[in-house]
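ESCALATION

Customer reports they have been waiting on this structure for their group meeting. Please prioritize. Original submission:
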Amino acid sequence: MAEPPTYFFDTSALFKRYHREPGTDAIDAAFAAEAIRIASDLALIELASTLARRVRMQQITAQDFQAAKAAIAQDTQDGDVLRIEALGEADKAEAARLLERYGLTRELRTLDALHLAVMRRLGSESLAAVYCTDRRLIALLEAEGFTVINPETP
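Update from on-call: job pushed to the front of the queue and completed.
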């Protein structure tokens, strides 16, 4: 029996698991499929920040915030639904190298460089696809040899 595919979720795509918006159906399908799903621990911080911002903007309620946080905790509890990959010192050093390499000619933000460093450590050959909606990051991921699925694109 073949190993299930491994998918990495950038925060921009993962957010759609916890808040319904364009692209949520594609994320739901990825979570329903037999697969290994991974995100960096940085995504957990970014999710909390994005959810809090949505409360401040009155796009979701404080109850929605708490429900989403509970769903994230449930998904990451044992790693069967979503495995969290810890950001290490080597990843930070790699992110700094990536910013030097790409930062002068492309828009690579700090947090995206950290996510990319984790993806590079895991290896493009071991990841069937990266789920991401950030167009600038998608272009960079493709240049790095990753297969990218934008859940907002049919």
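Sent to customer with the following note: The chain has one domain: 6-149.
Escalation resolved.
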